[in-house]
Amino acid sequence: MLEFQRAVLDSLRQPLETGKVDVARANAHVSFPANVQLVAAMNPCRCGHLGDPALACSRAPRCAADYQGKVSGPMLDRIDLHVEVDPVSAADLALPPPAESSADVAARVAAARDRQTARAEASGARTNAELDGDALEEFAGPDEAGRALLMQAATAMRLSARSYTRMLRVARTIADLSASERVGRIHVAEALSYRRQPPRA
Question: Which parts of the sequence belong to the Magnesium chelatase ChlI-like catalytic domain (predicted)?
């Protein structure tokens, strides 16, 4: 992701927010649908060895802040899930397979989508990502403990209004994956864990 110029990355902000691309020319102004799912990957720093004292460059961790700074805050704000993946060692390859197979995960995802489809009639939104306004509060509003955690995190992590809304949608999806009717504290906590924290300089 960070090999693209910053201006190119920032040009994605509006399509990701509105689900459409506006093209303006001298004689015409056309909008195209662009309801997409963005999947991006990046190294933590230019050398890719941040966190490994034996391989990291002499500028760590400052190099990570400089490198990751190529992506603007508003752009990162539009990416709901940030997952840090540790390097795989040779010893990791000898570990037993995970308890939940890919087929099991696929079944849970399909069931979660069915819940969203059933909710669409009442909410008007086909997916949780489309929940907004009163429907967002009705179907994704957390319980008392979950709301308290979200408000605490909003202050500590300085969440924008956009981030707050996106956290509710992610928490609703996590609840759907666990077949939970109500969004609880545990779902909010997991949703918050996917928010990216800036590297320490």
Answer: 1-91
- Contacts (Cβ under 8 Å, ≥6 apart) of 11: none
Q: Count CB atoms within 10 A of the CB of residue 116.
A: 20
Q: Are 148 and 165 in contact (CB under 8 A)?
A: no
How many other CB atoms are found less than 10 A from the CB of residue 124?
Answer: 12
User: What's the sign of the alpha-carbon dihedral 171, 174, 179, 184?
Assistant: negative
| Tens-digit pLDDT string for the chain (201 aa) | 988 998 999 999 989 888 899 888 888 889 999 888 899 999 888 877 777 777 777 777 778 888 888 888 888 888 999 998 888 888 888 888 888 889 999 999 999 999 998 888 788 888 898 888 899 999 999 999 999 999 999 999 888 888 899 999 999 999 999 999 999 999 999 999 998 765 444
56 CA to centre of own chain: 27
Are the beta carbons of 72 and 6 closer than 8 angstroms?
yes
- The span from the CA of 20 to the CA of 121, in Å, is 24
Q: For residue 61, say if its preceding peptide bond is cis, omega within 30 degrees of 0.
A: yes
Sequence ranges of the domains in the chain: 6-22+29-79, 125-201
Calpha distance 21→190 (Å, rounded): 32
Fold of 125-201: Helicase, Ruva Protein; domain 3 (1.10.8)
